[in-house]
Design a protein that fits this description.
It is a single chain. The protein is mainly beta. It has 4 domains: 6-136; 139-255, no CATH class; 262-350, Sandwich (Immunoglobulin-like); 366-601, Jelly Rolls, CATH 2.60.120. It is 2% helix and 48% strand. The protein has 3 helices and 47 strands. Strands 31, 36, 37, 38, 40, 41, 42, 44, 45 and 47 form a 10-stranded mixed β-sheet that branches. A 6-stranded antiparallel β-sheet has the order 1-10-9-7-4-5. Strand 15 and strand 16 (204-211) form a beta hairpin. It starts with 5 loop residues before the first strand and ends with a strand.
Amino acid sequence: MKKIGYILISFCLLLFSACQEDESMQGGKQTGYLRLSTSVNMAAVTKAEAELYNPKQLAVQILNAEGEVVKETQNYDEEWKDCEPIEVPVGAYTIKASSAGFDGETSAFDKPYYAGSTSVEVQAGKTANATITCTLANVKVTVNFDQSFKDAFSSATVQIDDNTEDEGIAPLKFEMGKTSESGYFPVTDLVAVVAATNKEHGVTNTQRNVIEGVKARDHYILNYKVGESTDTDGEGNISITVDETTRTYTYTVIVSTAPKPILTAEANAWAKMAYLEGSVNANGWTLEDGNYSFEYRQKDAADWQSATATLDGETYKAQVTGLTPAATYEYRLVYRNGEENYEGATVEFTTEEATELYNGGFEFWCTASEPGLNGSLKNVASPNKSGTLFWDTSNPGANTLGENNPTNKVETPVQGGTYAAQLKSISVFGQLAAASLYTGKFIKANLTMDADMQFGQPFTGRPIALKGYYKYTPVPIDIVKKVPEGVSIVKNETLDECSIYIALATEAITFNNSETVINYETDNRIIAYGALPSGAATEGDGYTEFTIPLQYKESKFDVQPTHIIVVCSASKYGDYMTGGEGSTLYVDEFSLVYDGTPTIWEGK
């Protein structure tokens, strides 16, 4: 075995004391001279070749007792070898030498890092001698593939990484038949994961081995081979020989050609829960149902949690709850039956953010300019901070002929905070101006008393429900322009109804409120939808709490939304210009619910 290389530098420190004090003084201090010499001849790297790393190009520093750098060079051979003596004050010094241009703190192929240091005392009238032995300061790893291994496997890689839960160092991957260089790593325990594809079965198996107790100057040689006898259990093993004189460790890693069961998993992660699915390729093994589970943990956590996996057709499934939003988790499908244990590859998912509904308490209000029939309308009440548009209302249309603001803030009644939103349907020249509040944008009012609008604001979360409070006092419908198909209305007798609903969509939806009614059930842009079950009057003087579950379409269950639609109206059929003048809806304290299990809109 070859010894790990080292560089020996001898520093001969010669102090030349002046015959008279005033002939060798530096700021009133007595000085001496350092002469450095080396016992080896190292090739220099010129400045033009600085990008070509040469581990034997040494950077040298001379530090005084206070740790201050007195003298330094990035190229000992070129700048200090055979140089004139270096004048320094009398005192204690530390001399450090290391490979220039690299600190050894990262992993790399063919990049050894040498370092060493020593201390010396410079005294008047004496010669000081010092020697630094620069040894390998990082760890060398060599990977070999035995011919038996090459004959059995069509391809193989070995990835070397540190054995920590942190981000750590960049892993290095050795590929059979392609990578011949040695890898160098900082001093840390290492993990070697071999992935080999069997020629006979075409199956890729992995095996993980840990290298512990790693020290600087260690050289680990990993020899991968196929066992001489057939491994019936599909597991490999490892033997180690150590040459302590050179600190070279030879690992013979036995890899079985027998394919093991392969367990794979994938996740559909929400904000506080995730659906896990997995599949199993038993590769001829007999594995009993009821012994499968998913193991998961937040990344960097010490312990795994377990969720029973239920077989659904050919897929194993589990739902895990109580997760932290916007966090990364590790998970894997496992089979555990006594001493028979198989683990799938560990993979990751990141939970979504539990995004709050902007101004859900309706505390922010401002007056804004909105597009009208004759230019911009002033003093339009807007449930947003100034300069922000998330919620919009029917106010721009109703204010075309004056400042009506059917949707506005009130200080009473409120459920929480200072303000709530009041929506009160009014009549403008005999036409119903239904009070509304929605996430989106009012585009323009038309001479025909209808409006172009846009529903939806950017949003990528997937809540379970919309929660809030409302109070509704309807009046009989006294303005009837159009009646929806299948709806029976008797003018001045049928009570008006309110409407509150939520939807998630893959785009904002632009429409004219007299021509287009969005069919949330059939519209392909809609992922989920939920509505207040009854628009009738509320009971009592206070607010009524509601929770509207979002029904996620079965066909869109894995689709990520891009927009959120929340709509409130004091007159349910306001889009048809039908409703009761004076019907009043109060809403307050809206919020999105992320805990729980989403409702599936089956068949949609």
